[in-house]
Design goal:
The protein contains eight helices and no strands. This is Heme exporter protein B.
């Protein structure tokens, strides 16, 4: 509900995602022989950057109106509240990116048989982007240059997700078994789901106390 009160913040990552993918053929090459092999990487990088664009607002409104301090003092464990915020972030950012990805992938000449694999990789990988990003957002909440610092903090942690996400599609395109890559991506999701809410909760307490 809080997110839908700011429709411009919801639209910005989606518009960026569409523009980034759409401009790639114009800036490089519109040839199918070039775009098809690179399409998975383009969609993944664009979705990663679009997620980064939306992370600064994850806890910012709560910090500005003082409710973040009340959340840290609430009787409920803070990591549960963080997990709820991350889930809401994925619903308003990750899920729309997931639904848009097949349309943009077709524009990049991705084979229709690979669309399911691409969406599966984003379904498993996009929540990891939100979970890891929550740690950076919690550490930089209240800072004027928080968006820049979030990028510096979380981009190195996004690299394994990007590698395995694009690797799934590339393995499927080559006719190879991609279940091992999917298993690695699922393991990263399980690890992030286990550790990231606690790390973000601790970071929020540090940020609020300062």
């Amino acid at each position: 509900m809080l997110a839908f009160r700011r429709p411009q913040e919801l639209a910005n990552p989606l518009v960026f995602f569409v523009m980034a993918v759409s401009l790639f053929p114009l800036g490089v090459s519109p040839e199918k022989s070039f775009l098809a092999p690179a399409a998975a990487g383009v969609v993944w990088v664009a979705s990663l950057l679009a997620t980064l664009l939306s992370l600064d607002a994850l806890f910012r409104a709560d910090h500005e109106d003082g409710s973040l301090e009340q959340l840290t003092l609430a009787p409920q464990p803070l990591f549960i509240l963080v997990l709820a915020k991350v889930f809401a972030h994925w619903l308003t950012t990750g899920l729309p990116l997931l639904l848009l990805s097949p349309v943009l992938a077709l524009m990049l000449h991705v084979d229709e048989g690979l669309l399911g694999v691409l969406m599966l990789s984003l379904l498993v990988g996009a929540p990891v982007l939100s979970l890891i990003g929550a740690i950076g957002a919690a550490l930089t909440v209240g800072l004027r240059v928080g968006g820049v610092l979030i990028s510096l903090l979380v981009l190195p942690l996004y690299i394994p997700v990007l590698i395995f996400g694009t690797g799934m599609v590339q393995s499927a395109a080559a006719g190879m078994d991609y279940t091992s890559t999917l298993a690695m991506l699922g393991a990263i999701l399980a690890l992030s789901l286990t550790l990231a809410p606690f790390a973000a909760a601790a970071a929020l307490k540090i940020s609020v106390s300062n």
